[in-house]
Amino acid sequence: MKRPQLVPATRLAVIAVLGVGPALAQDQILEGSFALPNVQPAVSGEMVVSETGPLSRHIELSYSDIHTGERVTQYEVELTQELHLLATDAGLSHLVHEHVKAAGDDGRFTTELHFPEPGRYHIYTDAAPSGLGQQVLRFELQVGENGNLDTQADTLLGSPPVDVKDGPIVSSDQGYRVTLSAPDLEAGKEGMITLAVEKDGQPASDLEPYLGVAAHAVFVRAQDLAYVHAHAMTDGPNGNGHHAETVEYHEHAHSHHPASNEPVEHEMPSGAEEANVEGDEAGMGAEGTMDHDEHAMHGAAEAVGSVSSTMAIHVTPPAAGAYALWVEFVGGGDVITVPFALEIP
């Protein structure tokens, strides 16, 4: 039985037709700050936000080339989408993800976002303007009256971060239990995180590729909101022996609330090998959007069980500190998001 979600009937809906929107309240115009650690910015960004409900906002986003001042109108397709959005609250307690498949002819993206509760939100917009590489901006948005921008490292995802050297660490979502081990992970160096996914006490046998890869891992550092996204590798039939990029880049429509996050005293299964996630994936075709299940399954022609229950993630944490981590994969036809609160030395 699936655990109730914070926003049971709420899913991020995308409005793909530019210039058409709901009756809007007074607009807010937000300027983005560059959010990729150790990367030189090539764009600036502006987000126009209009209230459409107590917890919903209509958003228009545009990027501009900082060297020419011209609006960006062409984007590369990354894992089937041109824009990926991540929204998380000040305490890094909730995660909301969405995609916009394509920008309009004038380079603007439009979307309707729904938030799980009032508060201050960090909204990351992740795209690859043609010729400029991966670019991620962060926008700060107040939703409702409550909340502030203070992020407390001792309350990530509702629990204290666990030092990765004290693992393995276990967390769960929707009946799936994930064991994480990363005893050698440290800031500034590429390291490996290994994962084992279980369902009903057994290795999960109903996993499928999610947007063409085995799993995704989204990291947000509490101290400075640095943001890293990496892709999992697997030793199952879908494992192709290729390297997983450490890129700041996101996908899926999902709202998530905290779950368990505790160290355990057993070893991880071995045998994780690499699966290819480098470069662009196949595009989506005409403008528009897909619903949550279509997002999950697009590009996943392999049968149920084609992804192994043991995975590995190569990642380089930009700095030591407390991180919220969300591991995303497809299990039983649904996108599963398993949260961890980690301390990385």
From TrEMBL:
<feature type="region of interest" description="Disordered">
    <location>
        <begin position="253"/>
        <end position="272"/>
    </location>
</feature>
<keyword id="KW-0732">Signal</keyword>
<feature type="signal peptide">
    <location>
        <begin position="1"/>
        <end position="25"/>
    </location>
</feature>
<protein>
    <recommendedName>
        <fullName>DUF4198 domain-containing protein</fullName>
    </recommendedName>
</protein>
